[in-house]
Design goal:
The chain is built from no helices and eleven strands. It has 122 residues and is mostly beta strands. The strands form two sheets. Strands 2, 4, 5, 6, 9, 10 and 11 form a seven-stranded mixed β-sheet that branches.
C-alpha cells in the first residue's frame, strides 16, 4: 500500500515552467507511478508514467517533449517537470500508483492522491 500527497500546483504563465511533487509513504519503490490530470468539466486524462525502477517513462503526445516524469526511490518522491506550459495544461493534477509492470496502462492504477491545481494563464 502507498499514500500519496501532491504539491507544487499554482498559477503560471503560458510558456513558463512548474514542477509538481508527489510525496509517498509506504512501499513506493514497488510501484509504477503515473500522473493524471482533469480539467473542469472533462474526464481525467493520463499524462504519463515511470516504471518502479525509474528506468522507463511514457508520455501522452500532448505533453511529450514538454513534461518530464522522474522519481527518487530513496526520498519516496515522484516529480513532474512541466515546461513550455500552455493554457490547455490547466487542470487538477493527480499522482497515482500501479503495480509494477502495469503503469503504462492507465486503467491499472490503484492508489491516488487528492490532487494539486495548476492554472496556466495566456
Amino acid at each position: 500500500q502507498v499514500q500519496l500527497v501532491e504539491s507544487g500546483g499554482q498559477l503560471a504563465q503560458a510558456g513558463g515552467s512548474l514542477r509538481l511533487s508527489c510525496a509517498a509513504s509506504g512501499r513506493f519503490s514497488a510501484y509504477d507511478m503515473g500522473w493524471f490530470r482533469q480539467a473542469p468539466g472533462k474526464d481525467r486524462d493520463f499524462v504519463g508514467a515511470v516504471t518502479y525502477r525509474g528506468d522507463m517513462t511514457y508520455y501522452v503526445d500532448s505533453v511529450k517533449g514538454r513534461f518530464t516524469i522522474s522519481r527518487d526511490n530513496v526520498k519516496n518522491l515522484l516529480s513532474l517537470q512541466m515546461n513550455n506550459l500552455k493554457p490547455e495544461d490547466t487542470a487538477m493534477y493527480y499522482c497515482a500508483a500501479a503495480s509494477a509492470g502495469s503503469g503504462f496502462n492507465e486503467n491499472r492504477y490503484i492508489y491516488w492522491g487528492k490532487g494539486t491545481q495548476v492554472t496556466v494563464s495566456a
